[in-house]
Automatic annotation (TrEMBL):
Entry protein name: FXNA-like protease
Domain Peptidase M28: 110-303
PANTHER family: ENDOPLASMIC RETICULUM METALLOPEPTIDASE 1 (PTHR12147:SF22), METALLOPEPTIDASE M28 FAMILY MEMBER (PTHR12147)
Membrane-topology descriptor: Multi-pass membrane protein
Length: 814
């Protein structure tokens, strides 16, 4: 009965709320709901934007067509807006520079629209950012076209309103995010408005639609969170912020640039549902759920209006004393947030209160059973030992299964059929949480304490374990400790209720407050587990092949199994058929393991949950100092995105013997030192073929334009120009004894050993000029990337998706 109730809550409330989206507004609604976000308009913009196809930096689609489309929309708003009250200043920034020492960018574009009240003189701006470029092959509907469309509609709604707007809002549509956050860096460090931008709302995606989650926020006080709490559809969690900062999500967003280089405070939000299609050809207009536009539109419009008029914005500095916060939503209904100081106090107070309640309860039990307190404490310690052992065994077993599945070649069985996780990784924990205490209770039957009291000891023990976890994590400065505090809080509430009502003294009645107290934590923890899984399952499809993806999934299961079931499973022991229930969960675990072996456990589903590959048809040329060619070889270069490169093995065998890429280098000395080839990543394959890349493509050309003897002794300046495709990568390495003493790049990295630069050009593809001052001779190597190799790609299994292009590697000696 208890689990029917829980199942009902899960189906009727948790799943509903996780997937809830508002009804999208249409053009008809505009008459009745002026000043509202109209999804239909945003949808039309998104359709046109995605119709341009993939928008890779440097392509016509990105640099010309997308820019024209967005600018047209901005000018249209400018013409139709409330011109008595508002002004829109438009700017197209074309920017070049160096980022993170070795990322060179040239002519990438930012479209800017600054909305301000004619009257107003505030010099503190709100910045809202999204990017219109996409990855190769991807139409970029969710990442990040939808956010561009949302911003354009918000600009329109606000500019047509009557105001008020105290602080100007800068809408930044950036044109180069996917190549390493270049355009937002260009804006932050070089645009005249950047210093005035104090607060950032960054909008991006790691999935296709759903509700956008607030997963990073930093500010000077909790004022920003106060405003976020008022949005219509809150969805946020500080746990994700922490996981993101621990590097568990392989992504980065522009937010980093605004925060670290612009000193801004603000919000980072992203779509996270259906991460399977993220950065693939399936991130299309058709797949993206349109109601998501309404969700984001309502939220960001509300934030734009409130921050645009916030008194707190009047006195605000870049680079203030930034803080992190504890924040989370409850089922999308409301927000909870507090400062880190409050967090410390709350965690300690709740734990102390729970401890006191446990001690009082132990005293009662001793009085009731007519045993010495010492005897009860001893019994309690023994119970705690059994409970700890059960948890440890459950966790160990779950983790063991994750290794077994991996070793037998069945990792990621839950990739498409997510429900397998239940049986594979939750059930073992449930099983041990039940079987050990059941055995213990059976064995100690003849002791003086009645069953009800002994079960209460188990509940107390579980609470004690959670208290220890909460306190330890709090002192380790792990913000996610609040999750354990929540579990302690609700149990302590039930316990105090029991003590006050004396229900704990009346047989099995204590179970009623406990069950009631578990409803809210059950709803909350299963809600969080649900979306953590839909974030992390797709992530395992692009996390590389190095680590065991089942381990991560098992760890999440262990934590949530403990949070969800620790206070519920002991209650089952009150009933007679305990052992059958427990054996049933073991049965389920075993059944699921059998099921998980293919075909149900086949990880991939065509189009819906595809396997990712990155494939290049590559050619590398090594030039001698006199310009002649020393070596010329072609291959298919493939690198793995998840644990299952084995699935493509047949194809690989058909395409000649595979070499690990370490054999690519033909200059042994340099290869073994630091492999100066772009064709080297761990777990990648190099499949030599005779055919060079077929489609005409641009090769990089590096020309030495001047060689000047400098005044400094033994120093020669080499001037170069580099021309070629829009994405290039190059290595610079002086020959043996020579030393680079100056150059046009970042001077602070002159002493680095491995000098690999990436070069991206957007609008301009004029020759890139640079110089190097050397104390002797030098040796330079260059590589680049460009598009497609059909035959190999078509022979990949149909559940695969791949990002592919042509790549060439040229090496010159000078
Ligand atoms: C989308 O493109 C079509 C065809 O070019 C055009 O008629 C329409 O006005 C565009 N809509 C928007 C919102 O840009
Ligand atoms: C600008 O402010 C003045 C008073 O400060 C007011 O009289 C005027 O109506 C305002 N103009 C607009 C367009 O709101
Ligand atoms: C700017 O706008 C705010 C809110 O509408 C208003 O209170 C303030 O007086 C305005 N400032 C100026 C200089 O007009
Ligand atoms: C490299 O070799 C291929 C044949 O394998 C040839 O077609 C191509 O022209 C060569 N490239 C250069 C630059 O010589
Ligand atoms: C070489 O590059 C430097 C720095 O860009 C420039 O000042 C110099 O004129 C160049 N020399 C020649 C000969 O082009
Ligand atoms: C490096 O070269 C630049 C450009 O010629 C020059 O301005 C700068 O002073 C040089 N730096 C050093 C340390 O020689
Ligand atoms: Zn993005």
């Amino acid at each position: 009965m208890l689990h029917s109730l829980l199942e009902f809550l899960y189906m009727a409330v948790v799943l509903q709320q996780v997937n809830h989206l508002p009804t999208p507004l249409t053009l008809q609604d505009e008459f009745t709901q002026a000043d509202s976000f109209i999804t239909e308009r945003a949808e039309n913009v998104l359709l046109n934007l995605t119709n341009l196809g993939p928008r890779v930096v440097g392509s016509e689609a990105n640099e010309v067509e997308a820019v024209t489309l967005i600018l047209d929309q901005v000018f249209k708003v400018q013409n139709e807006m409330n011109q008595d009250y508002f002004d829109i200043e438009v700017d197209l920034q074309v920017v070049s520079g160096q980022y993170m020492h070795t990322s060179l960018y040239h002519g990438v574009q930012n479209i800017l629209a600054k909305l301000s009240a004619k009257n107003n003189t505030s010099t503190n701006y709100l910045l809202i950012n999204s990017h219109f470029d996409s990855t190769p092959k991807s139409p970029g509907a969710s990442d990040d076209g939808a956010m561009v469309a949302v911003m354009l509609e918000i600009l329109r709604v606000m500019a047509n309103s009557k105001g008020p707007l105290e602080h100007p809002i800068v809408f930044l549509f950036n044109g180069a995010e996917e190549d390493g956050l270049l355009a937002s860096y260009g804006f932050t460090t070089q645009h005249k408005w950047a210093k005035n931008c104090k607060v950032i709302i960054n909008l991006d995606a790691a999935g296709s639609g759903g509700r956008e989650i607030l997963f990073q926020s930093i500010s000077e006080s909790s004022w920003l969170m106060n405003y976020y709490s008022k949005v219509t559809h809150p969805f946020a969690n500080a746990v994700l912020e922490e996981l993101f900062q621990f590097g568990l999500v392989p992504s980065a967003t522009d937010f980093r640039n605004f925060r670290d280089y612009g000193g801004m405070q603000g919000f980072d939000m992203a779509y996270i549902q259906n991460g399977y299609v993220y950065h693939t050809e399936f991130d299309s207009f058709k797949v993206y759920p349109k109601a998501s536009l309404q969700n984001t539109g309502d939220n960001v419009l509300s934030l734009a209006k409130s921050l645009g008029n916030a008194p707190e914005m009047r006195n605000i500095n870049n680079y203030g004393n930034m803080e992190h916060f504890i924040f989370f939503d409850f089922l999308g209904w409301f927000m909870v947030h507090y400062t880190m100081n409050t967090n410390l106090i709350v965690n300690i107070l709740v734990c102390v209160a729970a401890l006191i309640a446990i001690v009082i309860s132990l005293c009662w039990i001793s009085k009731r059973a007519d045993l010495s307190l010492l005897a009860i404490v001893a019994q309690f310690m023994l119970t705690t030992f059994i409970q700890t052992l059960s948890l440890a065994l459950g966790a160990a077993f779950s983790i063991l299964i994750s290794y077994v599945m991996d070793v037998i070649g069945c990792s990621m069985t839950w990739f498409s059929n997510n429900w397998l996780i239940c049986g594979l990784y939750f059930c073992p924990v449930f099983f041990f949480l039940g079987i050990l205490p059941a055995g213990f209770l059976e064995y100690t039957k003849k002791y003086a304490l009645p069953l009800g009291l002994r079960i209460q000891l188990f509940l107390h023990s579980h609470c004690l374990i959670l208290i220890v976890l909460t306190i330890s994590l709090t002192f380790l400065n792990i913000r996610s400790a609040f999750m354990f505090m929540v579990a302690v809080f609700f149990y302590a509430a039930a316990l105090i209720g029991n003590l006050i009502t004396q229900l704990h003294n009346k047989g099995s009645w204590f179970a009623i407050p406990v069950i009631v107290s578990q409803i809210v934590p059950f709803l909350y923890f299963s809600y969080v587990a649900e979306y953590l899984y839909f974030i992390f399952i797709p992530v395992t499809g692009r996390n590389g092949g190095a680590s065991n993806p089942d381990l991560l999934i098992a760890l999440i299961a262990v934590i949530f199994a403990i949070l969800l079931s620790g206070f519920l499973i002991p209650l089952y022991l009150l009933f007679r058929r305990t052992r059958s229930i427990i054996l049933c969960s073991l049965g389920v675990a075993i059944l699921f393991m059998i099921l998980a072996i293919r075909p149900i456990g086949t990880p991939y589903t065509p189009k819906l949950a595809p396997q990712r590959y990155t494939v290049q048809h590559a050619n590398q040329l090594y030039h001698n100092a006199d310009g002649s060619i020393r070596s010329n070889e072609s291959a298919i270069y493939l690198y793995q995105q998840d644990r299952h490169i084995d699935i493509a093995e047949e194809v690989i065998v058909k395409f000649k013997a595979a070499h690990e890429t370490s054999t690519v280098c033909n200059n042994e000395a340099t290869c073994q030192l630091d492999r100066p080839s772009i064709f080297y990543t761990p777990n990648s394959l190099w499949l030599p073929v005779n055919e060079p890349p077929g489609i005409p493509y641009e090769r990089p050309v590096l020309t030495l334009t001047a060689k000047t003897i400098m005044n400094t002794p033994n120093t020669v300046r080499y001037n170069y120009t580099l021309t070629g495709p829009d994405h290039m990568m190059f290595f610079i390495e002086p020959k043996t004894s020579a030393k680079i003493i100056n150059w046009s790049f970042d001077k602070t990295i002159l002493s680095r050993k491995r000098l690999v630069f990436t070069f991206v050009h957007g609008k301009n593809n004029d020759a890139f000029e640079f110089f190097i001052d050397l104390e002797c001779h030098q040796y330079t190597e260059f590589g680049n990337r460009v598009k497609i190799y059909e035959e190999f790609l078509e022979s990949l299994p149909n559940y695969a998706t791949n990002v592919n292009w042509l790549a060439t590697y040229d090496s010159w000696l000078f």
